[in-house]
Design brief:
alpha+beta; D-Maltodextrin-Binding Protein, domain 2; 5-stranded mixed beta sheet; 18 helices; 21% strand; globular; signal; ABC transporter substrate-binding protein; SsuA/THI5
């Protein structure tokens, strides 16, 4: 009898320990929460780098613990792309992750076979309504002017990533050899001449261009298809720890509000954590930046995800996916009221189509009315320009003024992100030539 009792006690203990694993714990026990993020994918910073650095999630879990009697141990795991986060989520080793639209859909497709044990997309981190978060760059000395000029050559991309998807869509009938490489490997391959171009997501194109190691060949916004990054959760975790997921989304909202209220400070936080130049982070995440940060699962973004599924199937990245089932906005509704408004909450003021920004050495970024006004201010100030930001005259993509291609149009000087786009509007000017023209 004693032996039976000991065995029953042993099995009861095992069951209790199992219940106290990832996502479930008895009162007073420690609840592990594992977050997968991409520190340098700065369109996810509100669910990753910025959120981690500011400690908003941990602060909210501390308050939650006062109510539940539990303690919560958060582990952050950093990756270069979304693919390994998906693999870890399938293995039950990551509870909440953030990644781009194509990786999100691949995540949902690969876990849908698990049914209720799969994953759900619960929020957006950031988006660009035209697709400007993904770009293709080439070496500064490249003679290529369009993607068609890359025919028969090697292009580096992370297969299955948002940058890869943009490349394949934009290439059309142009055939290239795609080298499946991590972003950092692809950047090195571009500089060494082992590939003719690099197709990647934020912040790699901007980083390489800012460093003078590349020029923009293709602006993803030319596709005019929304691109986004979002938050995904393992459904078992969401069901077992709904209050933890709710606090994560609240913390993500905290980080989003902080970014909107203090964009330069937020950029400095991300820059310090990632070693990315603050000027590059601010290009994407600053006022009127390429990325718009909003948790809302907007109808236009849902539509874009649904339209991406047939494309991903056609190139063999996924089998099938019920997007409506994959997206679960119920947890988000407890945190924030969703909106379909596409206005960037982080604005410079004035007309967003032309509003620009000048950042002089020793000072802070300052808004100017237009690209032409920026050029005139640089001429008149006598100060050294640290960096200028101007919106592409067609796509609206915010870009570095000194790396833009300029065209004189009457009294105005129009900036473009690519030489091909600029050449369609007139004689192409360099930044220095545009400055000279603005001073006349």
């Amino acid at each position: 009898m004693k032996g039976r009792f000991v065995k029953r006690l042993f099995f009861a203990s095992v069951l209790l320990l199992a219940a106290c694993g990832t996502g479930e714990a008895a009162s007073g026990a420690e609840v592990p929460v594992v977050i997968g993020y991409q520190s340098k994918t700065i369109n996810t910073v509100t669910a990753g780098t910025l959120l981690k650095d500011k400690g908003f999630f941990e602060q909210r879990l501390t308050e939650l613990g006062k109510k539940t009697g539990r303690t919560y141990k958060v582990t952050w795991q950093d990756y270069d792309t979304g693919a390994p986060i998906t693999a870890q989520m399938i293995a039950g080793k990551i509870d909440i992750g953030s990644m781009g639209d194509y990786p999100l859909l691949i995540n949902g497709s690969r876990t849908q076979k698990q049914g209720d044990q799969g994953t759900r997309m619960v929020a957006v981190t950031g988006y660009n309504a035209r697709g400007g978060l993904n770009s293709v760059v080439v070496p500064p000395s490249s003679s290529a002017r369009t993607l068609a000029d890359l025919a028969g050559q090697k292009v580096s991309a992370s297969v299955g990533s948002a940058g890869h998807g943009t490349l394949v869509r934009a290439l059309g009938d142009t055939e290239v050899t795609i080298e499946n490489q991590q972003p950092s490997v692809g950047a090195s391959a571009l500089q060494s001449g082992n590939v003719a171009a690099l197709a990647q997501f934020v912040a790699w194109p901007g980083q390489l261009v800012f460093a003078g190691q590349a020029k923009l060949l293709y602006d993803g916004a030319a596709l005019n298809l929304p691109t986004l990054h979002g938050t995904v959760v393992r459904n078992p975790f969401a069901q077992q720890q709904p209050e933890v997921l709710r606090e994560f989304l609240r913390a993500q909202l905290d980080a989003t509000k902080f970014l909107h209220a203090k964009p330069l400070e937020a950029a400095e936080v991300v820059s310090k954590a990632t070693s990315l130049p603050v000027e590059v982070v601010y290009l994407y995440n600053g006022p009127n930046g390429i990325a718009t940060f909003d948790l809302s699962l907007k109808s236009v973004l849902r539509k874009a995800l649904k339209e991406d599924v047939p494309f991903l199937k056609s190139i063999g990245n996924i089998d099938e996916l019920d997007v409506d089932k994959f997206i679960d906005d119920k947890p988000l509704k407890d945190v924030v009221e969703s909106t379909d408004d596409l206005t960037n909450p982080a604005t410079l003021g004035g007309d967003p189509k032309v509003a620009s920004e000048a950042w002089f050495e020793g000072g802070a970024p300052e808004a100017v009315a237009s690209p032409t006004a920026l050029l005139k201010l640089v001429n008149a100030s006598g100060k050294k320009l640290r960096v200028g930001y101007v919106p592409d005259a067609e796509t609206g993509t915010r870009w570095f003024a000194d790396h833009a291609f300029w065209v004189q149009s009457g009294a105005e000087l129009l900036p473009f992100t690519t030489e091909a786009a600029a050449s369609k509007r007139g004689q192409v000017l360099t930044f220095q030539q545009a400055l000279s023209s603005a001073g006349k």
